[in-house]
Write a structure and sequence with these properties.
Helix 8 links the parallel strand 2 and strand 3. By secondary structure, this protein is α+β, with helices and mostly antiparallel strands. The protein is elongated and about 85 Å long. The chain has a four-stranded mixed sheet. Helix 5 crosses helix 6 and helix 6 crosses helix 7.
C-alpha cells in the first residue's frame, strides 16, 4: 500500500512513494534494471519529443538549402497535354442515366456537355493573375472542337453554369439563412463579366 501525503488541501505530494518503486530503486540505484514480469516502467513523452525534435533539427542542418522560384510555384506549367474526350458511361436504368435524360429534357444538355464545358474552362490559358476572360462563343467552340458534341448542347451547358446578377441575387427575405440554396460559384463557376465570362481555373 502506498504511503502518500498531499491527499488533502494544504498537504504536499512530494512524499508520495510506492513501496514497490522504493524496493526497485534500492536494488538498482542507477535505474538500469530491466522490467521484471511484465512491469511497465512508463513512457517519457517529454524525452521522446526532445529526441524527435533534435533529429529533425539535425536533418535540417545537414540539408542543402534550395532557393525556390515563386513564379514556378504560383504559375501553372506552360506545357499542356491534350487528352481525348471521354463521355461518361451511364448504366441503363441507373439514377445517373435518369438524371441525364431529365437534364436533356429540361436544360437541353446532358452530363457529357456539362463535363466538356467544365473541363475546357478549367484548362483555359490564364494570365499571370490566374484568370482569363473569354466569350461564350469561344468557350463553346473550343469545347465542341475537343469533345465533338453539338454546339447547341454545349451552349445550353454554358448558360446553366453561368453566374450572373439574374441568378446570384436572392429574392427571399432572409437569404442568409438559405446559403445552401443560393446560386453561387460552387455550382455556377462561369462568372459573367459584361458580355464575356470570367474563368478562374
Amino acid at each position: 500500500m502506498s504511503q502518500c501525503t498531499g491527499l488533502f488541501p494544504g498537504s504536499s505530494l512530494r512524499g508520495c512513494r510506492s513501496p514497490r518503486l522504493a524496493e526497485r530503486d534500492a536494488a538498482d540505484p542507477v535505474g538500469v534494471a530491466k522490467p521484471q514480469g511484465g512491469e511497465h516502467l512508463g513512457f517519457d513523452l517529454g524525452a521522446y519529443r526532445r529526441a524527435r525534435q533534435h533529429r529533425m533539427i539535425a536533418a535540417a542542418v545537414d540539408a542543402e538549402p534550395e532557393l525556390l522560384d515563386a513564379s514556378t510555384l504560383l504559375t501553372a506549367p506552360p506545357v499542356r497535354t491534350e487528352i481525348p474526350f471521354t463521355a461518361p458511361v451511364l448504366a441503363a436504368g441507373s439514377q445517373l442515366a435518369q438524371a441525364d435524360r431529365l437534364l436533356r429534357q429540361q436544360w437541353g444538355c446532358g452530363l457529357d456537355a456539362l463535363g466538356a464545358v467544365l473541363a475546357t474552362a478549367s484548362d483555359w490559358p490564364t494570365s499571370e493573375h490566374g484568370t482569363a476572360t473569354v466569350t461564350i462563343e469561344d468557350l463553346v467552340a473550343e469545347s465542341a472542337a475537343w469533345s465533338g458534341l453539338p454546339a447547341d448542347h454545349l451552349r445550353a451547358a454554358v448558360n446553366r453554369l453561368r453566374l450572373h446578377p439574374g441568378n446570384a441575387a436572392s429574392t427571399t427575405e432572409h437569404a442568409y439563412t438559405e446559403v445552401e440554396r443560393r446560386t453561387r460559384p460552387l455550382t455556377h463557376p462561369l462568372i459573367t463579366d459584361g458580355e464575356n465570362l470570367l474563368v478562374l481555373p
